[in-house]
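Title: [Solved] FAD dependent oxidoreductase domain-containing protein 3D structure

Original question kept below for reference.
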Amino acid sequence: MTPPSLNESSSILIVGAGTWGCSTALHLVRRGYKNVTVLDPYPVPSSIAAGNDVNKIMEHKELKGPNTDARSIAFATCTRSALGGWTNDPIFKPYFHGTGLILSVYEAGDVIGARTADDVVHRADHTILAAGAGSDRLLDFKKQLRPTAWTLSHIQMTAEESQLYRNLPVLFNVAKGFFMEPDEDEHHLKICDEHPGYCKFIQDPNNAGEMKSSPFAKEQIPLEAEARAREFLRDTMPHLAERPFVFARICWDADTPDRAFLIDRHPDHPSLIVAVGGSGNGAMQMPTIGGFIVDALEGKLQKELKDVVRWRPELAVNRDWKSTQNRFGDQIN
Ligand SMILES: Cc1cc2nc3c(=O)[nH]c(=O)nc-3n(C[C@H](O)[C@H](O)[C@H](O)COP(=O)(O)OP(=O)(O)OC[C@H]3O[C@@H](n4cnc5c(N)ncnc54)[C@H](O)[C@@H]3O)c2cc1C
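Solution (posted by the thread starter after getting help):
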């Protein structure tokens, strides 16, 4: 089957108005597409979106040497482009500032649209699935996605404290998590626990006898995650270590088997583009990832990305669901 033709009047449906879905909508409109619809069960910003957060880390390292692997080249291509967006694009520029990083060293058939819960079918010539960790519920990704949760907790600062810690570099401890300056509006200091992550394993309805991770929303974090966050604060900002959390939640993103993004036309559904697999690095891409997703829709994704971000279920055969995938810890919780 060949994909339907594409022109500025084609109807394009984006499923998921999170980080990547909104970025895709922006880039579609900028390229002149006139019939774009975005669906999400939650008002934007969705309370379950991984990208709905007070702040995120943007990191970019230029690669050195001729023998750099394809995945690193693809990731650097995305982050270089995103950095350009954060520093030049008038929509994103006001929300970016460079603070630096302090790294602690003491520890180591085809798709014709989508049906919504009210039973309305939203038909489209082209559909883009960008529902983050929720995408795996809508399509069989052949084990390429593992919804994984990390924990967020917020401490209330005073306006004076917030001012004092303005421009605080990202403080990152590989075992206990990270935090950065408080957000300007609410004066919340966010602590994100960088443990390997939590999954909720259930029987996989598509594969008898197999399990899969199934995300759920919760504005709470496990006690052990709170203990780790407080330990980190005791090491870094002891005067804040016992202050109550004013907000906490688990936050889901989807890990691919190699933690490279997954942006491709579906092999069996030619009208469907999948744009998923943020793998813990998708928020920093917001200014430009939508441009790459529209490139995939237009069939002109650049070669540095095309092979790395392709539909690749062969990498997920016999996938070890508990693998930390190079994050700290022995196995996923
Ligand atoms: C705690 C935490 C900290 C992180 N820190 C960073 C960081 O510092 N830097 C960084 O670059 N990345 C970070 N990430 C990763 C980053 O947030 C994600 O990779 C990125 O937000 C993924 O974007 P997305 O659009 O795929 O998913 P999301 O932003 O999660 O958006 C998914 C959207 O799909 C919607 N949706 C869900 N189900 C359905 C459905 N059935 N139908 C329609 N819509 C649906 C949701 O409501 C949501 O709006 C972090 C992630 C977490 C969890």
